[in-house]
């Protein structure tokens, strides 16, 4: 049974996130993934068959499946916010159930109002769901370790949560690497094998199932990897800056640092606690790209799961540190590498200024006049343009074989909207560095709105081979 | 006197007296139940001591009118029987001649002066079986049907059910004729939804079961005073299992319960001459009784159990199969469980598992299945307070309540599952205990399919019987009980039946990429069927992997991945059951025991060896 304070936490934070999302929507800002998923869902609602092959097959299936439900029920505009804030409410409820201590609950209230949580649980699409599942997972896994790896119930729940997390976000797979080591002890090898089987099986089966579906519809079990290839096409964040970006989120959540300190001598727990950082490190090391900033909200969540509420002077310090983390979250948007979070903070902090998204709205107004499909990377500004423009004409890189078409957008669209590559990361600029500067013979500049440029493809540049027909066929589906 | 007659020596008497101190029973009873004195010697000595005539009822002339002066159940319980008139007095044979209260009561009932004689309890049992055969048989077969036909599977489907089948069949035919795509799509939808719900519910139950096991692990220690223990009846129906008799006797002997308070009835079928002959040669201690069940139809285990129930003397009663190796403390654990809610608990189910685990693929998979079924699922059902389909053996009953419920349904081939549901409907509670009985897993495919087809058929019959009045069922079970009944009792055979159809469609599509099936798989049904294919099969394997944990059968872990192949066998059995439902619904597919290589080679199970 739920205790009273858990109900309050659920209701309070659900409403907070929900109204925060609606408020941000009201100002014309939409989370890019949220828009993408909703657009896919809307395609279905508009009568396109809801088959996996028509939703791209590149995106993890669970977020789409969950967003499809509100879209199919007719409240597609609020659906994304609703699902995210529901996940937020559940996360708050779950975290509050871990303690009854007033200090810890106050700390939790502060923690959950951090801008990263506000973003993740209001308009981020699947990020909120991912956070919820991962926090649940870490908590169950921790309990399993606490009970000397004997409590099958929490272990089964942990492995199920972990499996579900993989079909929410692919990078969860990288967690396997550190987490496997948390289970290894000196014991009967068959017992070890069965532990591994219980832990890995949901991941393998769900992920294998997804690969099977990819093979079924696209003839390639690794078709979805084309989404991952986007990572490589993003302008890499090289050098020292990237490592700083990896460490910066630690300053947002002092609770995580305290937990690290408290578990410093306990190897398996420490490994579990460090696993998000290890994953971020793996991604950075292999792809030279920093994970989206809201991923690091996980540090706050699992930091709280591990926290043993301190005594004495450390209490006010921790509270003040958490407040400082929140302040830092709002005040250092320029350091953030991921577009949507930066836009979100900019919108909330500078909401009184009308020029926020002014350029995007002007781009949308211009694009409305055009007749033909427009290729658009959703990394920057797309959500705003989408909702102020004509959604039916936009084509996103996700919809096609990313690695190929992103390099040659003229194959599938007549127009191309590009933000300035300076200080922003998007895949089209990343792989076509010449277009924005007018050096690409396939595109001619037709409009410039502030930092945005709109190009039209030059007809003769179209190859006359069959792929165009194939793409046309794909679009008609 | 027994020493004087040379039947025992003083050391043996000392031993018996010691046991009397512990068990709080009569010395005579202890002597015969421990095998120190033969039953016949004790009774003859007693007759001399009390100066009462000893009657060998198998040779005495019994007056059929006189024997009916006492009620049958009274005689069965007290082991007394009127024999004939001798002068003005009624000659009554007592197996317990020192019970003065009993004597008074008999006088009250018959209203005649009585003349006491001594006989053995087995003799009384024998003449009762002989003189009351038709009544006993009638009660064994028709008692439930006469009391409440709604609960009996004698008539499998009611008129209303047959009418509904007809209506449903007509709608389907009509639909196929006028709109084949819509009709088949709807049928497909039903199959997918029920399959998904049934399998998901099993995962839910397993998780609840694991949790409830942890909660219940702090059981009270076995601190029962053996002097206060009640008489406990153990029914062991066997048929054509002469080979396992010594094994069975050994297992019962190992029970940690005062032997003088055990009432073990080995129920033998009259036409099973081989086992009858073997039983005659056994000559076990007096607490074993060989009860011959006359041949009649339906020839089922529940009918034999109902026969035995009429002679049960125990306050509690349990059933074991011939090849069972029960946990020696099981009876005491069951008593503790009863004592926690004595008013409502009718049954306590022990856990079952197998001792020939590693014999072959079938025994391994069977062990995995039993492990998650009894270790997790049934405790899960208990935790949710919904009907528990009992297992075939190691279910312990409150005898009085069981008799009130009219025992088992002899027309149901999974009488145990039916009884669990019926008990819950009547407001009783069924519980589980952490005490395992090890059995012999059938190791041959054909035998496995036969056994499983009986179980699936029984589930179908149970579902049909209890769904005669769905609204009433809903009222009696409540929402969760009703849903659980649908998914667990109804959903299990349904899932087994549906699986091969879906596999055939899928494999056909995989090989031919035919578009013919496309219209029957609109978007969301397609998604659901993909989930069924990928997730539900995953759930089946996952629950099997979890099953190895509690029993530390970690070597079976990798075998869990073969669970979908094991499901193919389930489906074959389910279709066989479906066929039998139409052709011979009461036919009992007998499982042959004693064929396990392990038992055959060693002559005992590993658990018996340990004990």
Which structural traits does this protein have?
heterodimer, A: 477 residues, mainly alpha, 5-stranded mixed β-sheet, 5 strands, globular, disordered C terminus, B: alpha/beta, 3-stranded mixed β-sheet, 56% helix
What do these coordinates show?
The complex is a heterodimer of chains A (477) and B (611). Helices cover 61% and strands 5% of the residues of chain A. Chain A is built from 22 helices and five strands. Chain A has helices spanning 4-26, 32-45, 61-73, 76-96, 102-112, 115-120, 126-146, 152-166, 176-183, 189-218, 225-233, 239-252, 254-262, 267-287, 297-306, 314-331, 339-349, 358-369, 382-388, 402-405, 427-431, 467-476, and strands spanning 374-376, 394-395, 415-419, 443-449, 452-457. In chain A, a hairpin with a 2-residue loop joins strand 4 and strand 5 (452-457). In chain A, helix 2 (32-45) crosses helix 3 (61-73). The termini of chain A are far apart. Residues 228-240 and 461-477 of chain A have low confidence and may be disordered. Chain B has 23 helices and eleven strands. The two termini of chain B are 36 Å apart. The mean pLDDT of chain B is 87. The radius of gyration of chain B is 27 Å and the shape is elongated. In chain B, helix 10 (180-215) packs across helix 15, helix 15 crosses helix 20 and helix 18 packs across helix 21 (563-583). By secondary structure, chain B is an alpha/beta fold. In chain B, 56% of the residues lie in helices and 11% in strands. The chains are: A mainly alpha (477), B alpha/beta (611). Chain A binds chain B through residues 44, 49-52, 65, 151-153, 156-157, 160, 188, 190-191, 193-194, 197-198, 201-202, 205-206, 208-209, 212-213, and chain B through 206-207, 210-211, 214, 523-524, 526-527, 530, 534-535, 537-538, 541-542, 545-546, 548-550, 552, 554-555, 557-558, 560.
Number of helices of chain B: 23
**Secondary-structure element order of chain A, N to C:** HHHHHHHHHHHHHHHHHHEHEHEHEEH
Strand tally of chain B is: 11
Poorly predicted sequence stretches spanning 5 or more consecutive residues of chain B: none
State the major sheet of chain A.
Answer: 5 strands, mixed
The number of E-state strands of chain A comes to: 5
What percent strand of chain B? 5-15%
Q: Quick one: which chains have the greatest interface? A: A-B, 27 and 27 residues
Oligomer: heterodimer
Q: What portion of the residues of chain A fall into strands of 2 or more residues?
A: under 5%
Q: Tell me the Rg of chain B in angstroms.
A: 27 Å
From the spread of the alpha carbons, the general shape of chain B counts as elongated
Distance between the termini of chain B: 36 Å
| Ends distance of chain A | 48 Å
């Amino acid at each position: 049974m739920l205790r009273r304070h858990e109900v309050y936490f659920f209701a309070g934070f659900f409403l907070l996130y929900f109204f925060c999302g609606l408020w941000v929507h009201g100002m014309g800002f939409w989370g890019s993934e949220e828009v993408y998923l909703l657009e896919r869902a809307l395609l279905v609602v508009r009568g396109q068959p809801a088959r996996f092959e028509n939703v791209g097959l590149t995106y993890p299936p669970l977020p789409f499946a969950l967003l499809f439900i509100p879209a199919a029920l007719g409240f597609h505009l609020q659906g994304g916010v609703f699902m995210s804030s529901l996940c937020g409410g559940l996360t708050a409820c779950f975290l509050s159930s871990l303690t009854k201590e007033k200090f810890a609950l106050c700390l939790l209230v502060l923690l959950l109002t951090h801008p990263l949580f506000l973003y993740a649980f209001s308009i981020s699409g699947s990020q909120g769901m991912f956070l919820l599942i991962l926090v649940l997972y870490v908590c169950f896994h921790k309990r399993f370790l606490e009970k000397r790896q004997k409590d099958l119930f929490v272990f089964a729940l942990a492995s199920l949560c972990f499996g579900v997390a993989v079909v929410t976000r692919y990078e969860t797979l990288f967690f396997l690497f550190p987490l496997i080591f948390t289970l290894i002890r000196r014991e009967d090898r068959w017992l070890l094998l069965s532990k591994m089987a219980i832990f890995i099986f949901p991941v393998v089966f769900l992920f294998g199932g997804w690969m099977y579906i990819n093979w079924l519809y696209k003839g390639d079990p690794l078709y979805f990897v084309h989404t991952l290839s986007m990572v490589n096409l993003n302008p890499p964040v090289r050098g020292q800056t990237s490592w700083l970006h990896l460490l910066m989120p630690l300053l947002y959540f002092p609770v995580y640092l305290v937990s690290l300190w408290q578990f410093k001598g306990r190897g398996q727990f420490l490994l579990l606690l460090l696993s998000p950082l290890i994953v971020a490190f793996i991604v950075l090391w292999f792809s030279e790209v920093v994970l989206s900033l809201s991923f690091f909200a996980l540090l706050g969540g699992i930091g709280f799961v591990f926290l043993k509420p301190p005594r004495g002077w450390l209490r006010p310090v921790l509270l003040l540190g958490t407040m400082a983390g929140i302040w830092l979250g709002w005040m250092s948007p320029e350091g953030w590498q991921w577009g949507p979070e930066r836009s979100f903070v900019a919108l909330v902090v500078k909401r009184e200024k009308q020029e926020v998204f002014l350029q995007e709205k002007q781009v949308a107004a211009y694009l409305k006049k055009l007749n033909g499909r427009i290729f658009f990377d959703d990394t920057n500004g797309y959500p705003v343009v989408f909702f102020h423009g004509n959604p039916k004409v936009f084509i996103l890189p996700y919809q096609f074989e990313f690695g190929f078409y992103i390099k040659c957008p003229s194959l599938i669209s007549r127009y191309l909207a590009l933000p300035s590559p300076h200080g922003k990361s998007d895949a089209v600029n990343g792989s076509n560095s010449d277009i924005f500067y007018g050096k690409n013979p396939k595109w001619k500049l037709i409009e410039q709105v502030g930092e945005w440029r709109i190009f039209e493809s030059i007809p003769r540049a179209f190859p006359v081979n069959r792929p165009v027909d194939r793409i046309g066929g794909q679009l008609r589906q | 006197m027994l020493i004087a007659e040379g039947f025992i020596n003083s050391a043996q008497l000392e031993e018996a007296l010691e046991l009397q101190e512990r068990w709080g029973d009569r010395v005579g009873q202890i002597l015969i139940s421990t095998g120190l004195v033969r039953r016949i010697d004790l009774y003859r000595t007693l007759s001399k001591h009390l100066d009462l005539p000893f009657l060998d009822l198998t040779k005495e002339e019994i007056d059929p009118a006189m024997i009916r002066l006492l009620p049958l159940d009274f005689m069965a319980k007290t082991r007394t029987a009127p024999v004939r008139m001798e002068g003005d007095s009624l000659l009554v044979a007592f197996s317990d001649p020192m019970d003065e209260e009993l004597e008074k009561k008999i006088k009250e009932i018959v209203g005649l002066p009585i003349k006491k004689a001594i006989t053995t309890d087995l003799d009384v049992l024998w003449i009762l079986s002989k003189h009351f055969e038709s009544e006993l048989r009638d009660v064994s077969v028709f008692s439930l049907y006469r009391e409440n036909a709604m609960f009996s599977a004698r008539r499998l489907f009611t008129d209303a059910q047959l009418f509904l089948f007809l209506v449903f069949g007509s709608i389907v035919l009509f639909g196929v004729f006028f709109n084949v795509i819509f009709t088949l799509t709807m049928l497909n939808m039903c199959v997918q939804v029920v399959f998904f719900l049934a399998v998901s519910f099993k995962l839910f139950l397993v998780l609840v079961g694991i949790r409830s096991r942890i909660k219940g692990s702090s059981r009270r220690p076995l601190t029962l005073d053996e002097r206060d223990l009640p008489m406990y009846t153990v029914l062991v129906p066997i048929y054509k299992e002469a080979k396992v008799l010594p094994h069975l006797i050994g297992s019962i002997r190992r029970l940690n319960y005062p032997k003088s308070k055990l009432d073990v009835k080995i129920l033998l079928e009259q036409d099973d001459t081989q086992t009858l002959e073997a039983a005659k040669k056994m000559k076990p201690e007096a607490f074993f009784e060989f009860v011959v069940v006359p041949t009649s139809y339906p020839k089922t285990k529940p009918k034999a159990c109902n026969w035995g129930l009429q002679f049960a003397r125990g306050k509690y009663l349990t059933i074991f199969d011939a090849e069972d190796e029960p946990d020696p403390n099981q009876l005491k654990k069951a008593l503790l469980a009863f004592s926690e809610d004595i008013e409502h608990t009718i049954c306590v189910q022990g856990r079952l598992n197998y001792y020939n685990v590693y014999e072959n693929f079938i025994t391994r998979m069977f062990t995995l299945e039993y492990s998650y079924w009894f270790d997790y699922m049934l405790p899960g059902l208990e935790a949710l307070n919904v009907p528990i389909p009992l297992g075939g053996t190691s279910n312990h009953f409150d005898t009085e309540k069981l008799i009130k419920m009219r025992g088992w349904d002899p027309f149901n081939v999974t009488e145990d599952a039916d009884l669990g549901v019926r008990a819950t409907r009547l407001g009783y509670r069924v519980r589980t205990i952490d005490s395992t009985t090890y059995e012999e897993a059938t190791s041959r495919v054909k035998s496995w399919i036969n056994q499983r087809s009986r179980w699936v058929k029984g589930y179908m019959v149970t579902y049909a019987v209890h769904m005669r009045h769905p609204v009433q069922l809903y009222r009696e079970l409540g929402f969760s009980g009703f849903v659980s009944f649908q998914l667990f009792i109804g959903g299990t055979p349904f899932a087994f039946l549906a699986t091969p159809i879906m596999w055939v469609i899928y494999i056909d599509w995989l090989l031919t990429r035919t578009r013919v099936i496309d219209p029957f798989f609109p978007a969301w049904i397609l998604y659901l069927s993909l989930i069924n294919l990928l997730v539900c099969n995953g759930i089946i394997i996952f629950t099997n992997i979890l099953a190895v944990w509690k029993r530390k059968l970690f070597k079976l872990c990798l075998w869990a991945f073969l669970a979908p192949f094991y499901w193919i066998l389930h489906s074959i059995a389910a279709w066989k059951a479906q066929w039998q439902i139409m052709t011979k619904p009461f036919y009992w597919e007998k499982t042959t025991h004693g064929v396990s290589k392990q038992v055959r080679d060693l002559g005992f199970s590993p658990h018996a060896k340990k004990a």
